[in-house]
User: Fold this.
Amino acid sequence: MGDTADAIAALQAFINEVNALVNSGRLTTADAEPLISAAEGIIAEL
Assistant:
């Protein structure tokens, strides 16, 4: 189970980083949405 928790933490960190890029204007919401959606989908499967 430790690997699952680590994977979820890494994916959540990825989501946070994508959101930070959106907030800084370096990434558009439209570009970020599929990245976040994919990460959330993986988390849901874990």
Q: What stands out?
A: The helical segments are 2-23, 29-45.
